[in-house]
Amino acid sequence: MASGDTLVVFTPLHNEPPSTAFATLDTRNQHPVLDFDAAANEDAIFSSVMPQHYGGGGVTVYLHYAMTSAVALTIDWDVAFERIGDDVLDIDADSFAAVNSVDNTTVLG
Questions:
Q1: Dihedral pair phi/psi, residue 31, rounded to 5°
Q2: Taking the chain, what is the end-to-end CA distance rounded to the nearest angstrom?
Q3: Report field, pTM of the whole predicted structure over 0.85
Q4: Sign of CA dihedral 8, 65, 73, 41
Q5: Handedness of CA 15, 17, 21, 26 (dihedral sign)
Q6: Does residue 13 sit in helix, strand or coil?
Q7: Nearest to residue 64, comparing CAs of 10, 16, 6?
Q8: How many other CB atoms are found less than 10 A from the CB of residue 18?
Q9: DSSP structure string for 34-101
Q10: Cβ contact 50:10 at 8 Å
Q11: What's the DSSP call for residue 19?
């Protein structure tokens, strides 16, 4: 696997929302989007299987977003991975790795 190879792509339609505090599915100009409340912390959860050619090591995540209305505030994103496999995890409980955060990204307004 070469550095920079795409491992997986998620769209809003792949979201598996938790039971509470979830981003809601919506559309903008017929494109599916997830709406995150500006006044609350909300989650979106995505599941996939890493491709067989993935050799371990770092993973770079790219997040694409747009704002409903541009205001001069900040936005925070957290990304965490959970390994599920034989003798690794009882899927009745969550076991995510440490969160990687991007905090206080300025929203242009």
A1: -100, 130
A2: 40
A3: no
A4: negative
A5: positive
A6: helix
A7: 10
A8: 13
A9: EE--TTS--B--------TT--SS----------SS--S-EEEEEE------TTT--TTS----PPEE
A10: no
A11: S
Give the contacts of 60 (CB within 8 A, at least 6 positions apart): none
* Number of other residues whose CB lies within 10 A of the CB of residue 107: 14
Residue 60 tokens read as: 């770079």
Tell me the per-residue pLDDT of 67-87, one tens digit each, with 9 for 90 and over: 777 666 778 888 988 888 777
Tokens read off for 31: 């494109």
Tokens of 33: 């989007």
Tell the residue number behind the tokens 């100009």, with chain if given: 29
CA–CA dist 42, 81 (Å, integer): 17
